[in-house]
Amino acid sequence: MVLIDREAELALLDTALAGCMAGHARIVLVEGAVGCGKSELADTVAESAEKAGAVVLRAMGSAAERALPLAVLGQLVNSAPPGTLPEPAQNQGPSRIEAMQAFSDAVHDLSTRTPVVICVDDLHLVDDLSCRYLLQLARRARNARILLVLTEPVHERSDDPVFGTELLRQPNFTRVRLERLGRYAVAEVLAQGLDGQPDTAGDERLADHAGHFWTVSGGNPLLLRALVEEYRVARRNSPAGAIPEPEAGGAFTQAVLACLYRCGPRTTQLAEALAVLGRTGTAELAAQLLGITTPAAVQGVAALNAAGILESFRFRHPAVRRSLLDRMDPAARTGLHRRAARLAHQYGMPASAVAGQLLAAQHADEDWAVPVLRAAAEQLLADGKAVPAAACLELAYQGCTDDEQRAEFRTRLAAVTWRTNPGAAERHLAEPLDALRADRLAPARMGPLARLLAAQGRIDEAGDVLARLGTATGDTGRRPDPQHGTAPVSSLGSALGSRPGGQLPGHRDDPLDGLSAFPRWAGGRTRAAGSPPPSTAAHSSVNAATVAVAPAALWAIPDGVQDGTAAEDAELFLRGTTLAAATVEPIVQALRVLQHLGGAQRAVHWSQVIGEEAARRDAPGWQALFTSLWAEALLRQGDLQGAEERAALALKLVPERGGSVFLCGVAATLVRARTAMGHYDAAARVLSQPVPEGLAGSFHGLGYLRARGQYHLATSRYHAALGDFLDIGRRTKRWGLDRPLLLPWRTDAAEALLQLGEAHQAERFVTDQLATRDAANPWVSGISLRLRAATREPRERQILLAKSVDELRRSGDRYELARSMAELGQVLKELGESTRANMVNRRAWHLAQECGAEALREKTLPGHSAAGGMPEDPAPVAAYADLEAKLSDSEKRVAMLAVHGHTNREIAMKLYITVSTVEQHLTRVYRKLSISSRQELPVDLQLSVTEMA
């Protein structure tokens, strides 16, 4: 490597060596930055001299021996042929001069017999007395076969100015300056290989990345060698074609530390100071930090730049900075960070820069530290950097002594941490809640606390906060139980909307601004240009849903499910908004409205889109939130396997699971999916995990109760299941959230009661659900009709189940549809209609298989496994992907009803046509599909024509 890009320097040294051999003494000073190959170049000259028959005397200066007189001269004498050079003497006065002359004469005598090449490395570390001997030799070596080769760092001169000046005065003196390798030289080094023998398996590829290696190493040959060696080791575990980055403590950073060591302790201390200062580093700041002069710091920075370790005041690779910080004494490093924080504050640097030093020192005892950390947190949040912002708030909290301010910091931390760690966000509110219960929380802090608790789904605790706020402010307009009933709009606006004291100074991006954001959609602010405003009914229903219930309003869904206005407004909002701290809660509201009112398929799409955006923003907490909503929407579609995968992913996205109300809600989706799939052991493992104390008073606790109840129901623990479902009913009524679209607890309870033989009680629950405002929804209606059918005689049961199938087919929930079809097939079998029963059961079996519902599939047709398939399935004789092109709309509707097992007369009644017309449609369908009977209708026909029905 040393010979590459060194042709001119080698030519000068070859000339000097040739002159020496011809009897003309030469003095060559090789200078350059540390690691640039000075020693290797001197070794190359020594090897050439030895091959030419010269005597080579070698010595090296070192910091350890610099205080030892004649240490270097002793190395030269020891490397000479025995008896040719006298032992150096440390005598003072005339005797010392005589000793220096004797040494010089001895070298001259030796040169008369053979050329003499003297190589002294690291001249700046040579002891003073040895320098005097060398200077005496240089003065007298004019017409002798002597070559004196000295190496010295360009920015680390000898402390003796006389020595350097006297060398310059010698007529036979030559200076050789070594620079770092250029980009093309680095490419040549990589192409030829470090040892001149390229490894065809790797080094040829290295040349393609010469720019990367040049940038990181700065063209310093020593650092380049270490970098390539580290790459050679790391590439074995790296993807093909990837360039592994150097690591702290690796060969490259060790080489940097070696260079600093050779530069001396002052340069090393300067490098450590610059590592502490980071991006704010300058020579002036480093000088003040170390207590040295600015010129000394400038000289040290120049040396580090010349060596390629620095680029201006920045390390070329962050691994070098990490290594320097790691190797420092912890107490010394902390002290430097504290001083750096004071300097940054004195110089008026940005709050984030000052906070960075305070965080590194974990120090907030200064009077100005807490305000700076608070300002830095808001600045970082505005830049989307939630993790360092949370660290600033945590340190500010530790440095704060005022209880009210500490509660404020904890509340703010909860809002910020939600982006990355929902569990930690919930725990941050423990201290403000304790302060509230001890009457130590000011009313100005209660509003933000209530909003955060409501956003986390902790409805009971949020209600307690609002009750205390009402008492503290003298607001008597509230009902006695404010968290469970309605609240006046004025009270709710002051507590949850206007944010009294709910932000830190300068904060403009409260993530809970959207607690009552749903009315904004109805207000048309996100409506597409030119579209008509929503109806007055929609306005009133939406506002009723969001401001009439406190604080459960966030989890409510609006009325007016018939016209779909709320779902349209929600989707318009999602199309026009971007993910940010202030929009998370409104986006959640919009997704839940889509799921319950606009079709789960739309909610699946938007949950996926926004979840991917959260991933791009490096917000695992948000990603887990939207992934959980994605799982819920998939479950609402009957995609059990997809729901299980998304729920499991949401749990993996967060760093911890224990003690989180939100994560219990995610676990509930996972349990429901696994229970419906028949994976009861896997569901039981999730349910066996501990739950937080506040789960019972949260909205997520309702989902957990339903999941546990469904598991109990599936495993024949009917009384336990009934208890969970009734508990859901009590809480939803208390909170004003009793909507079957949200939680159909009545039909869940009815199913448990039927298993307990309480058909009359089950009928009462189903009747109550069909009397609610959500009964017109096909999903609610379809489930209710299936449970009502279980209380009736077979003939009436058939009618109710047929209606249930029709409703659930429109709802898009394939799992619930499969359940109703399985029940319909069973009752048809009881009524002796085996042909229709087989067709319906066949369709139910396939639906269950598509959903992943193994237990339901086995219950529908015992003994028919997924691997074995359906023996009675006809082989496909036509391609059904183009059914829309083959069948008319009327034919599709008739065929679909036939697939569901309806008779020709029932189809005629449903479509308001004659039986003869039905028969004609079916005949044309058979002919177009090349089949002979309705038993051969493809089971996937229903999915192909659902939208047309």
Automatic annotation (TrEMBL):
Name of the protein described by the UniProt record: AAA family ATPase
Residue numbers spanned by region Disordered: 471-539
HTH luxR-type domain boundaries: 901-928
Organism encoding this protein: Streptomyces fildesensis
Domain of life: Bacteria
CDD domains: LuxR_C_like (cd06170)
Keyword presence, ATP-binding: yes
InterPro entries named among the record's database cross-references: AAA_16 (IPR041664), P-loop_NTPase (IPR027417), Sig_transdc_resp-reg_C-effctor (IPR016032), Tscrpt_reg_LuxR_C (IPR000792), WH-like_DNA-bd_sf (IPR036388)
Entry keyword set: ATP-binding, Nucleotide-binding
KW S-adenosyl-L-methionine (keyword) present: no
